[in-house]
Fold this protein.
Amino acid sequence: MSTSRPTINDVAARAGVSKSLVSLAIRGSDRVSEESREAILRAADELGYRPNAAARSLADRRSRTIGVLLHDLHNPVFAQVLDGVQEIVRAHGYRTMLVTGHGDSQREREELTALLDFQVEGLILISHGLDPALAQQAARECPVVIVMRHDITGRGISTVCADDVRAGSEAVEELLALGHERIAHVSGGDNRVGADRELGYREAMIRAGLDHHILVEAGDFTESGGRAAAARLLERDPDITGLVVANDLSALGAVVAAEEADRSVPSDLSIVGFDGMSLAALGSLTLTTMVQPLEQMGRAAAEQVFRRITSPRSPLSQDQVISTWLPRGTTAPAPPRG
Amino acid sequence: MSTSRPTINDVAARAGVSKSLVSLAIRGSDRVSEESREAILRAADELGYRPNAAARSLADRRSRTIGVLLHDLHNPVFAQVLDGVQEIVRAHGYRTMLVTGHGDSQREREELTALLDFQVEGLILISHGLDPALAQQAARECPVVIVMRHDITGRGISTVCADDVRAGSEAVEELLALGHERIAHVSGGDNRVGADRELGYREAMIRAGLDHHILVEAGDFTESGGRAAAARLLERDPDITGLVVANDLSALGAVVAAEEADRSVPSDLSIVGFDGMSLAALGSLTLTTMVQPLEQMGRAAAEQVFRRITSPRSPLSQDQVISTWLPRGTTAPAPPRG
DNA sequence: GTGAAAGCGCTAACAG
DNA sequence: CTGTTAGCGCTTTCAC
């Protein structure tokens, strides 16, 4: 059991050398004689020695750890971004320490604090509901990269985002191209990503001269929120033929609402989401969506963190990635006017 | 920037006391005079002091951290278990350190090693493909609780599992009750969870005198694997009316395969999954499934870990939870015999 | 090459 | 109540 693990001293004793030499040998320094190295490695192996990470990061003053705050784990979208992050972090020989705040700001603060207490060397924040003050505060202690929220800026903060306004407009424009006019919107609630997509929707509608058809109900990026909001929209205006929904997860909810309202998708009603989440293509239901390059965003974020760790004076970046239209099973030409 | 955070010494100096007293005050000991406490807390606050987690866990010889290994983050099922885990871990004032192995055994070993190097006080392993040797090795260093794999046992290992054999049988029996006879199975590949569910399927078929209709194709717990396996089954025997699929994720894939084979679900073909994953109810597609109480399993696992941390000699448990039939949109009475 | 000594920031006796 | 003294396990000068 926890009969305390062997320490560097045990190895040193067994190999008959000093602990400094063990330290060097373990980390593969070349200033150790072949002979000593062998003895040390063998002793370590026999003892089952492995360095204590806490001691090392204390002495080293670097944790070799990147902290990642995720909104939550239920939306697979975050997992996709995380994959990109992990790939780069691992490549640098670092580890990632993952926490989630479940969209609760207080909880996010606690978790972030815990990461900082652990002396993470960099922070990647992936949460659309993130409190800007939190991020700015964290940025005083280590490099911070924010994914999906370009509006949070400040000293020490970089961002990796899609152009959500443009994506919002493009979703509308694609529906327009399919002949839709009565296009409503399920928004993403009180946060910048949602607000931007909604803005894009509104602008595109106005540009198309369809201001009078602008119709919005608030969702919250969850499946149930999207379902409820879509239901309200369909009740307010049964003539809607197109629905632009703030993200894929709530768009899946909107599909449910559509069926409950006896609208068949896509023949009666076209639905578009955002994100390109991996599980959005299921069964009969393959969601049309504005895809974001999620893994790529994760990689970009991690790369930026390491750039800043390596050269703290390197410039802060504001990466922007491109969202693209991915037509699948929930969109079709507008039904003939009734 | 990282201009080194204030330490306990800085606080002590500023408050005009010794660092031991600061240590006590910070942790809320009552052996500190009201006067000193105030001075210390104020100094700490002014300096923005927060204890260094690495130093603390080194001196304390406890990390107050529970390590969690997850198969991967793309199957929302794991997120649900994790929620239960986190709830309990937080309640104990501990933190969780989360890693994933993406189903790769070598990678799982690395990540597990990293957790142990960090001196986690307990380990919760949630990965159906887990290598038993890995778990047993880890159990020599700290209490280990394995979720979903009752077959991995050993000194220091507890388990929290559903009775997958029974669940497998029950899925079949429910289909039998709906009048199905030609019931095939998409398995979960080379791991015990999958094997158990398959065994349950086989046993139930045999008990029903339907051995000659036993038909199995191997999936791998992924959506695409389920889709491919289901497609093969439908080709091998077009008369199948029921499909028991090893987990929800692959069941969703099976639904796609069914539609591609022009079988309509559930009127032509009933499909059952396992797990009760939150995203299995989407749009027209609400999957019938054998639900496991995922959050509860997570809580049970965490509670067991703390029980073992608190009293190392407390008995190893083998918790078993109940899977229940949740009929939804992908099952229906068997079509009349052609 | 190798070892002795001095910390990293914190906790934990043990005296006062 | 409070300060002193030792470490926790590891890295890192800096002599030899």
Notes: Residues 71 and 103 of chain B are 6 Å apart (CA to CA). Chain B has three domains: 8-51, 65-161+293-321, 164-292. Residues 17-21, 24, 31-33, 36, 55, 57-61 of chain B lie near DNA strand D (CB under 10 Å from a C1').
